From TrEMBL:
InterPro entries: FAD-bd_FR_type, FNR_nucleotide-bd, Riboflavin_synthase-like_b-brl, SIP_FAD-bd, SIP_fam, SIP_rossman_dom. Residues 7-131 form the FAD-binding FR-type domain. Belongs to the SIP oxidoreductase family. PROSITE patterns: FAD_FR. This is Siderophore-interacting protein. PANTHER family: FERRIC REDUCTASE, NADPH-DEPENDENT (PTHR30157), NADPH-DEPENDENT FERRIC-CHELATE REDUCTASE (PTHR30157:SF0). It comes from Roseibium litorale.
Length: 266
């Protein structure tokens, strides 16, 4: 089967960058190449390539002029389309800032109007149908963007539970448009460098609902593994109704984590 043609990388520039909370930066990106960006991609993953220190925009853009290059000259990391406004056009990407030295965090912490990057994607949206009696959303801060986008796409009469693991009380996000029937719990875990069980412990402490359940669950791989076992095996949620994904792993950079996931599924 022939693979679908990947869209060419889009060179985007920063319109604004601000701290939503102490550990989350929202960067608004714009550019002429967003004029044909498809609507309805909130929650889709994307790859971002970041310029090297001192690199100018023209030199950076020339590397992507003929599509995705075979040679990787720039660090690439995976993020989520948090919002897209077609009329402007502009896009929001949220970056976790918790003191690490990763290229995405460093870029976002220093982003100012006119900063630039390459956008590759989008990939598939994680939740595309909403037919459940009850929804379960669980995320740490790395997965808050996909969780928030999925919640905002739900019917306004949706019922369910959202569990957000955050680094501080001040990291609660008040701008998420959450249906009234979604019960939200913010669990504070201040150390981002250790795997935790706070989400699965909370899940086990509450009654499991009757009826069809759909999920959007993502975050640190060790924590996600235990939630996956509980949701799929103990509670019998069908795989077609369960988006569950490890986004990162304590002690590994993204390339190492992606290689670990490939080996696990080989």
């Amino acid at each position: 089967m022939q693979r679908p043609v990947r869209p060419a990388p889009r060179i985007l520039t920063v319109k604004s960058a601000r701290y939503l909370t102490p550990h989350m930066i929202r960067v608004t990106l714009t550019g002429d190449s967003l004029s044909d960006f498809p609507p309805g991609q909130e929650g889709a993953h994307c790859k971002l390539a970041f310029p090297r220190a001192g690199e100018d925009k023209d030199g950076f853009a020339s590397h992507y002029a003929e599509g995705r290059p075979k040679e990787r000259l720039h660090p690439v990391r995976t993020y989520t389309v948090r919002a897209f406004r077609q009329a402007e056009p502009e896009m929001d990407i949220d970056f976790v800032a918790h003191g690490d030295s990763g290229p995405g965090t460093l870029w976002a912490q220093n982003a100012v109007e006119g900063s630039f990057l390459a956008f590759m994607g989008p990939g598939p949206v994680k939740m595309t149908h909403f037919q459940a009696d009850w929804y379960l959303v669980a995320a740490d801060m790395s997965a808050l963007p996909v969780a928030a986008a999925s919640i905002e796409a739900m019917p306004r009469n949706a019922k369910g539970l959202a569990i957000f693991e955050i680094l501080s009380e001040e990291d609660k996000q008040t701008d998420i448009r959450i249906p009234e029937g979604i019960e939200v719990h913010w669990l504070v875990q201040p150390d981002p460098h250790v795997a935790t069980s706070v989400q699965i412990d909370f899940l086990r402490s509450i009654p499991w609902p009757e009826g069809r359940v759909q999920t959007c669950i993502a975050g640190e791989s060790s924590a996600i593994r235990s939630i996956r076992e509980y949701v799929l095996k103990e509670k019998g949620v069908g795989k077609a109704d369960a988006y569950i994904s490890g986004y990162w792993k304590v002690g590994l950079v993204e390339d190492q984590h992606q290689e670990m996931k490939r080996l696990e599924t080989a």
